[in-house]
Here is the input.
Amino acid sequence: MHIVVCVKQVPDTTEVKIDPETNTLDRSSAPAIINPYDAHAVDEAVRLKEQHGGKVTIISMGPPGAVEVIKKCIELGADEGYLLSDRKFAGSDTLATSYILAKGIETICQDNPFQLIFCGKQAIDGDTAQVGPGIARRLLIPQLTYVNEVTAVDSAKEVITVHRKLDDGYEVVEAKMPCLITVEKEINQLRYSSLPNMLRAARYQPHMLNADELNADVTNMGLKGSPTSVAKIFAPEQRGEGEIIAGSNDETINQLIQKLSDQMAK
Amino acid sequence: MPKKFDAIVVGAGMAGLAAAYKMSSEGLSVVVIERGDYPGAKNVMGGVLYRSMMEELIPEFWKEAPLQRPVVEQRFWMLDKQSVVTSGYKDESWAEEPYNCFTVFRGEFDRWFAKKCEEKGALIINETLVESCIVDDGKVIGVQTNRPEGDLYANVVVLADGVNSLLGKQLGFHREWEPQQVALAVMEELKLPEEVIEDRFNLEPGMGTTIELFGQGTMGMVGTAFIYTNKQHISIGVGALLSQIREKQVQPYQLLENLKQHPAVRPLVRGAEPVEYYAHLIPEGGYNSIPKLVSDGVVVVGDAAQLVNGIHREGSNMAMTSGRLAAEAVIHACNMGHFDRDALSSYENELNNSFVIKDLEKYKDASHLLESNPRYFNNYIPTANMALREMLTVDGVSKKQKQKKLTKSILGKNGLFTLGKDIYQMWKAVR
Here is the structure.
């Protein structure tokens, strides 16, 4: 079984700062990490490989520095990694990114067709959750989003069964392979990489592919291929200071009611 | 994939990376194992990197390494409660190549240094803890890490695992350090605009200064405080012997706050935003604390070997030099095909012949003297302040009368004999 996993290098949003004057993200302030959902996608792919045999291939689009996240995936147990990197990709929105990744997947799977594609459910920097479904649509394969458990893989019948997370429970869904799956964090607990995998990753040089090697239409890439336009970015206003009302129960309840009715009157 | 490496280096600090760089440059297969997220993540120093020892590894490294400021001035301050006696040296030639030393952020610098090692072929494995050395028949043959399938084998293991060196302790090279053999240092990075730093410290754009502070900076304990200028930050820190911090029951953060409140320091750090806080142990035992450095299949370098000159606040330079010399011994051993104690002993010999051991030997009694005789910190520094206060305060009293008063005050406390003895002992300790 050949499993492809799409990963993204993102700024660690727990450390990213926003410039209050220009309202832009100060990306230099945050270290680059693998999108956390994608790490779970890689781990799930590696677990399936361990059960059913085959190969896990990583694909990512990003600047040359993104080789680091691919190496991270090798630590997690992936076999190969490809970085799609080209100035022509710069400024791509989710539509263009899904085009580039779909073309990349077609290119690297020419001689070894995939049965599954894994993605994280969304990236923590954009939170759009659009690229995974976009790739599925472009490759004309079924998509299973928000998956929190893979319950069965029948390689002979080429059928996969999963649990999809819903607001009030989960649904059991079966799909014909090849298909694309986007995963929730609950799907697995990341494992501590083995030392041999760490050593392999330290030595590993990911394959690099540019726009020409993808055999793709450049008008669908970068700013040209991106209909999305950002009207405004702003940081939410800081919430005002809270107030603690002290005293006995009756007193404080009355005070609270008074304050709330004052607020409503405003 | 070779099953066995020529060398495993435990710890990606100055000593470990220097050893890894040198060995991989000579074609040895080297793996560096670091417990932090990346090299430098857990490494702490005040921030002065010495050019000469680094250049022995990477010539003209300053052209590409991430450095903060070349140091053009070194100041020495002796603090009393609300006064300071200052001295120092500033040199224009330190502002030009090849420079004397630089301020650096270890988080940046060590990462860069590790990249250079990787370019030479070394493997850097982060987020991995070495739990013990694998010993076979008295000989170290590898390490056991906390990862699955985590055993790794090599001809030589280089212990660069820092001041506590738990691995060295496991091997019986040293005992648990006594509180008077280590200093506890705390430091802060304070953010300020570049021009403000240059104005406050009287610097040309891009240039840096260091201030070492004695006396009240450590609340009278044996230790030093420091203020170093980075591009957009000031590093301010203070360290004192752990034994004295414990005895006086001072909280480390109180030491730093006390320092920042001193009238001579306060205007330098005014309005600065604290962005990082660090604490670390520093080896202070000096020459007398150096553990066993070489055994079958293993060498010890850097802080793990307690190679720090507390009197001159030098440590990273000794770490680099010890790492390089250990690497040369390993290369030599590889050529011979033997890795026992004899084959590696050239490391110890070379280290003994280098400035590292010579300097440590020279000052071997100095720290102990300062610790056992409180007069140096508690009497003489205040006295120096008092003397200048007397002579420089113009109040109508004749200079002759002032001198008399001074002499009386200096001799009154301890007498001429004690003063003479203290001067002699200090001279003996540092000569």
